[in-house]
Design goal:
18 helices; mainly alpha; single chain; 364 residues; globular
Amino acid sequence: MILFFSFLSFVQILFLPGLIYCYLKKKFNLFFIISLSIFFNFILILLISLLKIYSFKLLLIIILFELLLIGFFFLKDKNNFKLNFNFNFFDIFSCIIIIFLSYKLLQYFYPFFGSLFSEGDVLQSWNEWALNLIGSTYKPGKLIIGSFDSDFIANQSRSYYGQLIPAIWSIFYLMTGNNDVTMFPKFLNFLLSCLGIIYLILDYFKSKKLLNLLLLIFIIVLFYKEHAHLVYSGLVDSSLSIFVFISLLSVFKFDDNFDENKLKTGILFAAIASNIKILTIYYSVIFLPIYLFFNYSNQLKKKIFLYIVICWCLCLFWPIYQYFIFDINIISNNNLDYLNSLSVKDYDEGLKRISGLFGSLKIF
C-alpha cells in the first residue's frame, strides 16, 4: 500500500490541481500544470493545517474528488486529454515509475547517493516542519539565541523560510504513514531538480534552438559538478535554483512569439521559489516584474499591471501570511548581518568561487 499511496502523493503534488484548471481552460502545458499543482498544494496544506483539520481522511477525500473530476472531463472530451510536446499523460506516470525504480536501484548499490538527507539541518528544520504541519502544531519558531548548538539555527527562524517544501513533503508523510526523509520526499526533490533538464530537452526538440542545447549541456555539467557527484541530489537548494531557472526561461523573450501560458508558468515558478526561501524575492519581486513590464507591455497593454500585481502577491505570499497570521514582519525584522557574513566580500572572491565550480568535470 505504501507504493500506491506514494503514487497518489506524486499525482496530487505534480498534476491533479493543474490538470483540473487546464481542463477548464482547454489549454494544456506540462510545466504550467506542474507549477500550478505545487503552488496550489502549498496553499491548501497551510490553510487546512491552520484550521487544524489536516488529516489523512480529508486529504484522501480531496484527491479522490479531483480524480473523479478529471475522470469526468476525460470521458466528456477524450480528444483534448493531451499535453504540450505530444506527451501522453499516462506516459509521464510510467516514466516517473521507471525513474523511481532506477533511482532506488542506484541508491542500493551506491549507499551515499543523496546521503545529505541523513545529516545537517534537514532533520532539524525541513523535516520537522513537515511533521508540524501534519499535527497542526506549526509555530513561527521564535528562537532564543544560545539554546541551540548550531550557529545556523541560532541565526535562523522558520519564519524566514516559506513552508512550501515541508508542505508537499507532509503529503507523503500523511498518505504513506512513513516519515523517512531518505525515501519519497528526497526522490521528489531529485525529480524537481531534473525539471530544468527535462524542460530544455522538450523545448529543444520543439524549437531546435542551439541555445537550448548549449544550456542543456551547461546545466548538466554544473548540476553534477556542484552537487558533489550526485551526493547532493536531494538538496532543497538544487530544486530552488531550478525553479528560478525555469521561470526565467519561460518568460525570456527569445523572439516575437508571445505565449501567455509560458508567462503564467514563469510567474508560478518564481512564486514557488520565493515561498521556499525569501532570498529569491530579489529575482521574483524586483527583476521579474521589471523585465515583464519592458518586454510585454506592448502585447498585454494595461493587463501587464495585473500580471505584475499577481506576481508580487504570489511571490510575497509567505511574508504576507506571516504578518497577518502571526504578526511577524520578516522583511524588516531580518537577519542581514548573519547573511552578510556568508556572502562574498569583493569581486575577486566571487570570481574565485565561480571559477572553482569548473575545477573538474568528473561526475562519478
